[in-house]
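Much of our argument rests on the idea that a fold can be written as discrete symbols. The record that follows shows the chain in one-letter code together with its fold in token form.
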Amino acid sequence: MKKEYIVTRIDASPDGSPYVILSLSTSKDFREQSTPASPFGAGGVMGFTNMDDMVKNLNKMISGGGMGQPGNVTSIKLDMHEYKELNLGVGDKVYLEVTKAESIGV
């Protein structure tokens, strides 16, 4: 299986190790994120009438973009050597290919 992604964010490793975290989105998701926001600023605001509703929907808010984070993001951890070799930047197209290893013998 081969999929096309766009690099949306590049972050240093949170623990200070020599790694880079790439955040990837599909082309479709990237286009949806790029649409202009409402002029009234209420694009992704979730309203709650009581505390119970807020607690029930808290996970949805955090993972689904309620806190400024895109919902469908694939993250990859690369060491600095791999990152420099690939020379990636935000907005670059990348392809990920997933294959299943064939086992020979028992």
Residues 2 and 97 are 4 Å apart (CA to CA).
